Amino acid sequence: MSIIRIGRVELRVLELEKSVDYYTNIIGLEEVAREKGKVYLKAWDEFDHHSVILQEAESAGIDHLAFKVENVDDLAKYETNAEMFGCTVKRVSKGTRIGEGEAVRIEIPTGHQVELYHDIVQLGTKVGTLNPKPWPFDTKGIAPHRFDHCLLTGDDVKTVTRFFTEALDLHQSERIMTVDGEDMVGSFMHARNGKAHDLAFVKGPDKKLHHAAFFVDNWYDVLRAADRLSAYEVPIEVTPTRHGITRGETIYFFDPSGNRNEAFAGGYIAYHDSPTITWTEDKIGTGIFYHRRELIESFGKALT
Asked: What pLDDT, on the 0 to 100 scale, is given for residue 244?
């Protein structure tokens, strides 16, 4: 029984067509399907039908995120674990969304909705599986390899971390503790996939999205992303820099609805038996922005 990886995010956007234009031409995702009020997208290096769903709504933010499990039987096991933890759980029928099989939907301790699924249609990647080229030659925009992770906010970071590590068997790669060690204000977790993080939480209001991140190959691609974002006059919050936490390279910016996006590269390999790295709250500036060593005000307040 295991969770493989984070698999998709459904974002609420204010103007659907304006958002589709942004996510296809500036981010560089491919539109694969539509239904009333929703558009399904995938990155060029993803096999599954979609990883991002845009939902037209009156307010921006996140509808849900979802993790892919190794076997269909894992759904029942994790469903039981979540119920025993005290979470509200329900089944999502096959075909509720295009290309998706049955899922388990969980309201986690921070009020966010998280789904677990196994079955999803595979469309394949742009380069295929037979003697593939290293990348396609017809990409647009930033052209990330994949949807990579989400950072969410919640009031009780310690309890939501317990849920993911105890009920869903994620591993905590890093954490941010108050200086006295009494409370946890940040948590970074991953499935059994070697990534530094699939999901993170920082202390803040419940049910909020901090950012949705897309993986690019290297530091040069982060710089190239910055050039493209500036050319399209996309609001950039943080210009290219490095994280202390995860060691990844990053740039932060906003979609037309105000949802924060990240282009993320690098990061170390995190094993399930690796010890958890601890940062203290007085060093959070260095942990988040290693070069400037301090947070900027909008980074904690611009939430959707």
From this structure: 96
- The catalytic position among 149, 232, 271, 291 is 149
Q: How far apart are the C-alpha atoms of 26 and 234, rounded to whole Å? A: 9
Segment 89-100, tens digit of pLDDT = 999 999 999 999
Q: How high is the mean pLDDT of the chain?
A: 97
Q: Is the pLDDT at 136 greater than 90, yes or no?
A: yes
| Fold entry, domain 3-117 | 2,3-Dihydroxybiphenyl 1,2-Dioxygenase; domain 1 (3.10.180)
Instruction: Respond yes or no: is residue 190 known to be catalytic.
Output: no
149 is catalytic: yes
Residue 233 CB contacts under 8 Å (≥ 6 apart), including other chains: none
CATH topology classification for 148-301: 2,3-Dihydroxybiphenyl 1,2-Dioxygenase; domain 1 (3.10.180)
Q: Which two tokens stand for residue 235?
A: 């609001």
Query: Looking at 79, 115, 243, 249, which residue is catalytic?
Result: 243
User: Active site residue: 115, 174, 249, 262, which one?
Assistant: 262
Residue 272 is among the residues annotated as catalytic for this protein: no
Whether 115 is catalytic: no
Catalytic residue among 174, 197, 210, 249: 197
Cβ burial 27-47 (10 Å sphere, 16+ → b, else e): bbbbebbeeeebbbbbbbbbe
Tell me, yes or no, if 211 is annotated catalytic.
yes
